[in-house]
Amino acid sequence: MGESSNLISHLMRTGLFKTNRDVLDYFILDDISAHDGPMGSWTLVQLLADRGVDVSSATIGRYLKDLDYAGYTVRESNQGRILTPEGKAHLKTLSEQIERAEVHDGETQALCVNEYDELFDLLKARRVLEVAVMKEAIKNATAKDIERLRLSNSDYYADLAEKVDHIEPALDFHAILAEMSGNKYFISLLKLLIYEEKQVEAGLDVLETRFQGDVYAAQHEEITNAVEKKDVDLAVRLMKEHMDEIIRTVEQQINELKKVEN
């Protein structure tokens, strides 16, 4: 079980998978791909066991049905599953992303933040990128994109109302804008910075920005309205003000902490 946990944890750290279940789906697709012909659930149970993952045949059966529904696998008579063209393409993309993440692990580690000063530097880098993303995202914005932004805002307000941690919806809003830009480098860079920010914020007991959620949620809403109107100048100005507000709050906290230390 320890081997399983280590392997899953290693892949989770790449930021490519949201849950352990996503990792298991990847293992299943990879095992089916490597098999010559259709593969049944009992064979998958054994192959996953070889990876150190203990899963029952019934559970594998449920996972396979989900993969069928997603269009990644298909049953071939009673012999088992094979990958569909979509499944092969999805597996290829994931495998390439994992390889890239592992090759660049040293560079990625250099971006990990665990101190307030480093968070400040990360946010300054994010500000530059967020403005560039905003300019491209607003050009490509569709009605569906606006709906995604508004749903993200609704989730943000819901978390605030329930007084629970609102890091996820707060940062997901920016990830959606990155995807709207259509620029794969903007998307990759911003998602990497967002991932690192989530890690540091989740590990900090005291972070003043956590108490400014009402302000930031309202700013997200204003940005969404500007995007919907296709008002580039207004959207860019609002994004700059939004990021400046966050950076100013973190900088003030850093200065206060340094005063205490001294």
From TrEMBL:
Q: Where is the GntR C-terminal domain?
A: 121-245
| Protein name, UniProt field | FCD domain-containing protein
Record's keyword annotation contains DNA-binding? yes
Where do transmembrane segments lie in this chain?
none
Q: Which UniProt keywords apply?
A: DNA-binding, Transcription, Transcription regulation
> Pfam families, per this entry?
FCD, WHD_RNase_R
Please give the superkingdom of this protein's source: Bacteria
Keyword match Transcription: yes
Q: Which Gene3D superfamilies match?
A: GntR ligand-binding domain-like
In terms of InterPro entries, this protein maps to: GntR_C (IPR011711), RNase_R_HTH_12 (IPR013668), TF_FadR/GntR_C (IPR008920), WH_DNA-bd_sf (IPR036390)
Lineage at the top is: Bacteria, Bacillati, Bacillota, Clostridia, Lachnospirales
